[in-house]
Amino acid sequence: MPQVGFGVFQVPDDEAERVVTVALEAGYRSIDTASAYGNEEGVGRALRDSAVPREELFVTTKLWNDEQGYDNALRACEASLSRLGLDYLDLYLIHWPMTARDTYLETWRALERLKRDGRVRSIGVSNFTVETLRRVIEEADVVPAVNQIELHPYLQQDGLRAFHRDHGIRTEAWAPLGQGQGLLDDPALDRIARDHGRTPAQIVLRWHLQIGNVVIPKSVTPSRIAENIDLSGFELSPDDLKTIGELDKGIRVGPDPATFGAA
Ligand code: NAD
Predict the structure, then answer these.
(1) Is ipTM > 0.95 here?
(2) CA–CA separation, 62 vs 33, rounded Å?
(3) Is residue 251 part of a domain?
(4) Which stretches are annotated as coiled coil (predicted)?
(5) Residue 115: CB atoms within 10 Å
(6) Ligand 1 pocket, 59 CB below 6 A?
(7) Number of domains comprising the chain
(8) Cα(170)–Cα(1) distance, rounded to whole angstroms?
(9) Which of 83, 132, 208, 222 has the fewest CB atoms inside 10 Å of its own CB, making it the most exposed?
(10) Percent of the chain, pLDDT > 70?
(11) How far does the centroid of ligand 1 lie from the alpha carbon of residue 19, in Å?
(12) Can you tell me the distance from the alpha carbon of 3 to that of 240, in angstroms, rounded to the nearest whole number?
């Protein structure tokens, strides 16, 4: 799985084709969408029209909350594959645990079957807590390959990251730039960016890479799309990492999985 991918949350279907084309030209090979984003068709058109061979692409999509349940999940995967115009997915995720429904375990069983049947190469989850992950691990045959969670310097998720490490689960950061709001204006990040002659966004993304996270930054602006994958040729020092490590404020930009869908 490439450590840097391209996210398309809130990109309308007719724009998705253009921005994914720009991203592929900039060198991204991993694309993160979801049935809930309503843009799988646009993403699929860009993938099909590009010269990049299918085996070099890494395509992730997610099953939405109303698609949970064993049979629903099997159908949802086929619907996503058909909208994307693909015959397999590289990674298929349960978007939210939605604990009040209590269907995520049977949904997981369906994902295990999709993996056995070759419709998806890897299966994982998103927005799972230690508690919901523990239940999946205890009761399922396959350990989730990935947990995609909100993670950025203002929400560093040390507890979940340690749990992932102990169980061989890859940590994938959504909103890796904190959705741009406030985080990228942080004076400490600005100072580190000036030291390295880079932008605050590149400093944040480089921090993710150095602590082992997979990132899927989103932008619809070609210069930023290129900037967000131009992360080699510099390295954050132990002091830089320590400074960024101290920025954690427990601030979320999205819903809290412990309460969203829990009642
Ligand atoms: P992000 O942290 O990637 O921030 C994107 C925003 O940051 C952009 O809209 C833009 O305003 C700003 N930005 C981007 N590049 C910049 C740059 N170089 N300089 C300055 N500003 C810049 O937030 P996101 O889109 O919420 O998250 C990334 C991806 O994660 C999504 O597109 C989606 O694929 C995924 N995601 C998943 C979930 C989930 O529940 N699993 C939830 C949200 C997002």
Answers:
(1) yes
(2) 7
(3) no
(4) none
(5) 18
(6) no
(7) 1
(8) 10
(9) 222
(10) 100
(11) 13
(12) 21
